[in-house]
Amino acid sequence: MMGTGPFAVPTFQALLAAGHDIPLLVTRPPVPTKGKPPINPMREVATAHGIPVFDPPSINTAEAINTVQSLAADLLVVCDYGQILSPAALATTRWGGINLHGSLLPKYRGAAPVQWCVYHGDPVSGVSVILLTPKLDGGPVLVQTSVDVDPAETAGELETRLSQIGVEAVLQALLQLEQWDLAQDPTNPTNGPGSSPPVLGIPQAAELVTKAPRLHKSQGQIDWTRSAADLRNQIRAFQPWPGSYTHWQRGSGPPLRLIIAAAQVVPAPTDPPSPASAGSPAAPGTLVRADHEQLWVQTGDGVLSLTQIQPAGKRVMSIAEFLRGYAPAPGQAFAWLDPA
Length: 340
Known about the structure:
Layout: H1 9-17, E1 25-26, H2 41-48, E2 53-54, H3 62-69, E3 76-78, H4 87-90, E4 97-101, H5 113-119, E5 124-131, E6 141-148, H6 155-184, H7 228-237, E7 244-249, E8 256-266, E9 287-291, E10 294-298, E11 303-311, E12 317-318, H8 319-326, E13 333-335
């Protein structure tokens, strides 16, 4: 088994529960976390089951390849590992490797498929189990399972769901591999003379490939010129990390950094505005309501109602708490600050 993050844990546990012989966990080396013990849920599962742990800086070195090859294993099961395997690393086992990926490939190849799915407001997501090739997330698809995305679901919540759905997908892929292996066996009486070997997996359509690159903290800053719907999706997508943040311009004091933990789109009025109230909307980022447990912000298209907010150095709080403690006023602005 090769994995590091929490997305791989349910599959690891299921393979152990099913009685598969897993002689080694290959995982990423520990990363210092500001004085706290490094967290690696896969390492914890392996230790609890007495499985040795191997954490080379690179799986593609000669030493690492020799270590894995010495096990004479049938298959590498890879999920949430964090390194691309070279052809030599893939050749260390009899069947090569499979990978559980959190998207409906070829859509969202890369390190953050669930986050970009939510960011773009996709109504459907899913998991894919693919045969590993040296090309990132580019191997033939063995199994896919799709699920509807709840419009209120964060990326963290969806990722947890997909990690559970991926268990059955991996077990199905293992069954396919066993059947394929039997079909290669010349001593198997069901394989008659001249029978052609079965094709394993379905190639991905190159024209449908989209990318899901790794996220960076700076991407969380809110651009209020985007639409309210797009910003709501961003806030959902970047939970729990990197978070979505803005800077509140509060009078003469310095801007206060705020993390927006949750928000909703304010429905557009069904009746046309009266002549007295008609006019151009406020500039994007302007507070247009700050009362009665409501904090509304004008965006480039529509109004966003903030429902949970976290001032710098404080805990997440409700809008009622934020209004009592900080007294924001209509006309003040949430602004973009140049990271430079």
